[in-house]
Amino acid sequence: MRKHSKIIIFFLFISCTSAFASDEADKSLKELDSYIDQRDHYIQLRENRINILKQRIASINNDTERFEIYSSLFDEYKSYKYDSAFVYAQKSFATAQKLSDLNKVIEAKRQMAFCYLSSGLFKEASDIMKSIDIENAPTNIKRDYYVLLARLYYDMADYSFGEYFSQDYIKSGIQYCDSAITYLPIESSSVWSTVGLKRMQQRNFPAAIDAFQTLLRLPNIDDHTYAIATSSIGFMYSEMGDTEKAIYYLSQASIGDIKSATKEAVALQNLAGILYREGDVKRANSYIRIAMEDANFYNARHRKIQISAILPIIEKERMEMVERQRNDLIIFASIVSLLFFLLLAATVIIYKQVKRLRKARQTIQLQNKDLKSAYIKLYEANEIKDEYIVQSLYGKSEYIDRLENLYKIINRKIIARQYDDIRSYLKEDDLKKERENMYSSFDDTFLRLFPDFIEGYNHLFKPEDSIGLDTNKVLTPELRIFALIRLGIHESERIAKFLDYSVNTINTYKTKVKNKSIIPNEQFEQKIMEIKTVRTAPLQ
User: Fold this and answer.
1) Are 33 and 54 spatial neighbours (Cβ–Cβ below 8 Å)?
2) Minimal CA–CA distance to 321: which of 345, 287, 285, 351?
């Protein structure tokens, strides 16, 4: 029973680990896709560094400094663009010969050999490496020399067409790795990179992965070194059959290549091959095309040959996939078309019904709008009437009281035969005063109903023509005229009778006011009618 439990736990562990690895691979691919969209940014960073170095050349008169600048430009171009890297390698060589500095000549030759190697010209690279005498060269030159020789033989092994030659090249590469290791600092990134390369060529993949993982744990490694290490780990996991980890590390290597603007790389190409085998044809096609763009940009002949062998296969599969999708789409479109025609008849019927409903709705909306407008006007009229009815009742009540007192006084005076005193109670001034009281009451009631009337009225004139109220808030004659108009009294005869003016006087006031207004004369009274009361109708 215990034995079965252990087996179950083992398989659960394996499945959980596989699910985690798959999740990490998917995340890494999505991260790579986002970095692919930023390729131009990282390329521009490298171009900026190159431009700065090129600008420095013009201001240098010292050949030693010029050699250093040429070498720096070679370093920028060596994994970016073969042709330019080779140009500056040649310039470094010419400057080194001019300086008669043997170490600089060796360095320049190594640069030229690197260019030949990176572009697939193995014989030319081998010839120039054989012409170098490093017997008395310093340690750092010997180290770089043996590292480059090791890579040369490993690349020749990868691209040779015979097992016999391949094994010999690998043996030579391992020997040169051992030679390079003796000159490399212990625990440096270079030593772990070289140890990992040696173990990988010996097919000791677990030990090689451990060496590269040690390299990745070192602080401050650059993006290019990170890309080389993860690309190597991804290749080995692919060889070991661990597809998820291979995808993860190769996608991380491709990210490192993008961030370092490296065009001489194989990670994206290898990743495309794995994704194609896994059925992700769309992504594989995208990646292999980018890899071909990079190879064309760098002008790496052997890389272009490799990719050219893979690209048609992936493209063929993609075209077949597109063809299948097209056939599926035709079937789907046929079904949709049939449904569309069936739906069309129903749509026509529904459209006619909707059209009728829309027309009815528009009619109802217009009627509602008219009703609302009429309701607002009616409400406003009722408010005005209520206010003036109350004011009229109070006014008439007071007037009757005064008239009653007057009758009583006159009656007493008649009985007492005091006729002269009666004449004093019937003075014209009293009538004028009564009229003024009536106007004052009208003004007060109107301004309670329309507190913003003066402001709204003044908006119809230039600032210099605006009218204000006096301290007693008494309306001017022209304001009373248009106040009456706002109350709905438009006839000049009625206005004249209320204000005790002639009709001509009323018309003269109207014409004078309208001529001063900034509003066209025919629109002036309409604008007066638009001035709102203090209360608005409550709409449901």
Assistant:
1) no
2) 285
- Count of H helices and E strands in the chain? 22, 0
Q: Which residues in 375-400 are b (16+ Cβ under 10 Å) and which e?
A: eeeebbeebbeeebeebeeebeeeee
The single-letter DSSP state of residue 203 is T
Please write the tens of the pLDDT for every residue from 405-456.
766 777 777 777 766 666 665 554 566 777 777 888 888 888 888 888 888 8
Please give the span between the terminal C-alpha atoms of the chain, in angstroms, as a whole number: 79
* CA-based R_g, the chain, Å: 51
pLDDT digits (tens, 9 = 90+) for 47-87: 999 999 999 988 888 999 999 999 999 999 988 888 899 99
Q: Categorise residue 313: left if φ over 0, alpha if ψ from -120 to 50, beta otherwise.
A: alpha
Nearest to 272 by CA among 254, 296, 294, 295: 254
Name the pLDDT band for 389 (thresholds 50, 70, 90): low
Q: What is the pLDDT of residues 5-33, one digit of tens each?
A: 544 444 444 444 455 567 898 999 999 99
Angle at 493 between CA 492 and CA 494, to 5 degrees: 95
Question: What is the structure's pLDDT at 10?
Answer: 41
Q: Give the DSSP H/E element, type plus range, for residue 436.
A: helix 428-449
Phi, psi of 20 (to 5 degrees): -65, -45
pTM of whole model > 0.85?
A: no
| Least trusted range by pLDDT, from 42-56, 140-154, 285-299 | 285-299
Distances (CA, A) of 136 to 103, 128, 139, 141: 9, 18, 9, 10
- State the Cα–Cα distance between residues 15 and 28, nearest whole angstrom: 20
Contact between 166 and 140 under an 8 Å Cβ cutoff? The reply is no
